[in-house]
Amino acid sequence: MAALPYIALAEYIAVILLGTVAVVISTVSLLSTQVAWKKRTVQAPNRMMGLFTATAMAMTGTNAVQMTYMAALWNPNYHEHDTTLMRYVGTVSLITVNSYEISTLLLTADRCFFVLWPAQRLKHEKFFFTLNLGAIGFFVVAVSYLCTTDAIPASLPENCWAYGCVFSMGTNEILLAARISMSSSNILLNITFLCLLLKYRKCKVRNRSALQKFTNHFIIWLFSFHVVFDLTPAIVDLLLRNFRNIYLQNYLGPYGVLFITFDGFFSALAYNIVLRKIRKTRVQPSQAPGS
C-alpha cells in the first residue's frame, strides 16, 4: 500500500495531460466541422459524430479538472479532502461519462440504420441526434438525483485515492451496472454493424464511397477502443467486487478514470484523422451536406 499514493499521483498527471490534449484536439475538430458544414462543396461528417466528439471532450475535460484538484492536494502522508466538493465534481464527471457512453451507443445505432436504409440517412440522423440529446438530459437528471440523495462520507477511507470513494457501494454498483449494460449493448450493435457491412460490402452508397468508408472506419475504431479501455476494465472490476470482495481502486488508485480518459483521447484523435480525410473529398453540389 505504501506505493499507492505515488501510483495515484502518476495517474492524476496522466489523466490531466491526456484530458487536456483531448480537449484541444476535439475543439479543433469541432471548429473544423463547422467550417466543413458551411462549405457545401466539401463533404462533412454527420451531426451525430460531432455530438459524440463534444461529449468526449466534456468527459475528458471534466476528468482533467477533477484530477487537477486531487493532484494539487496530493500528499503521501496526509489524506484529507473536501468530500462534499469531491461529490459535486464526481457527479459532473459521472454525467459526462454516461453522456459519452450513450452517444457512442446511438452513433453506432445511427450507422446501422444507414446501412439498412441509406436513402433515409438525413431522417435517421435527425432522429438519433434528437434522441441523443434527450438521453443526455435524462442522464443529467437521473445521475444528479442518485448522487445528491446518496450520503456524503465525512472523510475518505484509508488507501482510497479515487472519486468512487465518496459514493456508497450501492450507488457505485448501480452506476457500474449501467455502464456495463451500455457498453455490452454497444458491442452487440457493433457486431450487427460489421455483419451488415459484410452483407452490403459491394454497395458503394453504403460503404465504398469515401465519406461512408471513413465514417465506417471511425465506428470500428471506436469499437476497438471501447472494448479495450471501457468494457474490459469495468467487467474485471465488477467480477472482483462481487466474487472476491476486492476493490481495485484500493490497489491501483483511479485506474477507471485513466482508462476512460484513454478511450476519450483516442476517440478524439480518431475523429480528427477521419475529419481530415473527409474534408479532402470533394463532392457534387447535389451530394453536399444538407441536400
Write the layout of secondary structure elements.
Elements lengths: L3 H35 L8 H26 L10 H34 L4 H28 L20 H31 L4 H5 L1 H35 L4 H4 L2 H25 L12
Helix pairs in contact: 1-2, 1-9, 2-3, 2-9, 3-4, 3-5, 5-7, 7-9
Keywords: Membrane, Transmembrane, Transmembrane helix
The CATH level-2 architecture is identified as: Up-down Bundle
CATH class: Mainly Alpha
User: Low-confidence parts, pLDDT < 50 over ≥5 residues?
Assistant: 284-291
Quick one: CATH superfamily? Rhodopsin 7-helix transmembrane proteins
Specify Rg, calculated over alpha carbons.
20 Å
What is the overall shape? elongated
Approximate helicity band:
over 70%
The number of strands is 0
- Derived from helix and strand composition plus strand pairing, the structural class reads mainly alpha
DSSP strand content: under 5%
Order of helices and strands: HHHHHHHHH
Report on this model:
With 291 residues, the protein is mainly α. The protein is 77% helix and 0% strand. The protein has helices at 4-38, 47-72, 83-116, 121-148, 169-199, 204-208, 210-244, 249-252, 255-279. The termini are far apart.
Summarize the structure.
This protein has 291 residues and is mainly alpha-helical. It has helices spanning 4-38, 47-72, 83-116, 121-148, 169-199, 204-208, 210-244, 249-252, 255-279.
Question: Which terms summarize this structure?
Answer:
9 helices; elongated; mainly alpha; 291 residues; Rhopdopsin 7-helix transmembrane proteins; disordered C terminus
